[in-house]
TrEMBL record:
Gene3D superfamilies: Vaccinia Virus protein VP39 (3.40.50.150). It holds the Pfam family Methyltransf_25. This is Methyltransferase domain-containing protein. GO terms for molecular function: methyltransferase activity. Residues 53-144 form the Methyltransferase domain. The lineage of its organism: Bacteria, Bacillati, Actinomycetota, Actinomycetes, Micromonosporales.
Length: 284
């Protein structure tokens, strides 16, 4: 079974996909489980040796907390703004064993060598999955692991929260009013969404599995208007550059919408559980 590529979905990647989103990403996105490093340390039997590769690492969301579990780590991303933010956050956190490389996933192996673990945090759908899976398979140590990390997708109960949820439907409608009814992505559109079929692609590339881990998160966060605005601008389909000269108008309407949705400008959101899928190289 062959997974559909992004181009077969009528869209081609370009470097403006997340242009301008980097300063908003860490603040706007809900966090993964705080104990994710400990869970992966046990599941992957990590002992401080080996190297970690984070493909499309963004602002270092995953590679920075995981890097201390390895001898060295490499964060790869095609967006210069994301790498600058990752580097800043790494220096702030005192993480010094990460090398930052600007490159697309399709440009791997890029002379980076071999790795014990390659991690993809909700990024695999943005690339040529078959090509990248095959390349990463060859970059892994014989006992290495391909690790996909994501939020659990089922709806979370809205009851029992001290503040209202952000008005997700209203935000979507406002974005559509400014950018059109078809999802934007870089210089193109994604009328059919991003490709799926990850399991089939990885099996065809020579991986076995997956081992599925679910890391529970029992946490509700208080979010401000600025936090919700940051989330909107952190998304590829509402990245700041897409609004062009209309950005200030959109921003004003977005803030008005949020102010009307909460009397005191505070919202509550439950943080979803973190899901981890571990794939291992198939044995001959």
């Amino acid at each position: 079974m062959k997974s559909a590529s992004a181009s077969e979905h009528g869209w081609e990647w370009d470097e403006s996909l997340f242009a301008g989103s980097a300063p908003y990403y860490s603040r706007g996105r809900l966090p993964y489980a705080a104990n994710l490093p400990e869970v992966l340390e046990q599941a992957l039997d990590l002992d401080g040796s080996g190297r970690l590769l984070d493909v499309d690492c963004g602002p270092g969301t995953v590679v920075l907390p995981l890097a201390p579990l390895f001898e060295a780590a490499v964060g790869v991303d095609p967006d210069a703004g994301m790498l600058a933010e990752a580097r800043r956050r790494g220096e702030q956190a005192g993480v010094r064993n990460v090398r930052w490389v600007r490159a697309r996933a399709e440009e791997l192996p890029a002379g980076l060598g071999t790795f014990r673990v390659a991690v993809f945090a909700q990024s695999f759908h943005w690339m040529d999955q078959a090509q990248v899976a095959g390349t990463v398979r060859r970059m892994l140590d014989p006992d290495g692991a391909f690790v996909h990390i994501s939020d659990a997708k089922e709806p979370l109960p809205p009851d029992g929260l001290p503040h209202p949820l952000p008005p997700a439907h209203g935000i979507r409608e406002l974005v559509r009013r400014h950018l059109g009814p078809v999802r934007r992505a870089g210089q193109g559109v994604l009328p059919h969404g991003t490709p799926g079929g990850e399991a089939a692609v990885l099996a065809q590339a020579g991986f076995a599995g997956p081992e599925r881990l679910r890391v529970p998160v029992d946490l509700a966060l208080e979010r401000t208007v600025d936090d919700v605005v940051a989330f909107v601008y952190s998304r590829s389909d509402s990245a700041p550059h897409l609004f062009g000269p209309g950005l200030a108008e959109f921003d004003g309407e977005l803030r008005s919408l949020l102010t009307e949705a909460s009397d005191d400008g505070r919202f509550s959101e439950r943080v979803p559980d973190t899901e981890v899928f571990v794939w291992r190289p198939s044995r001959p």
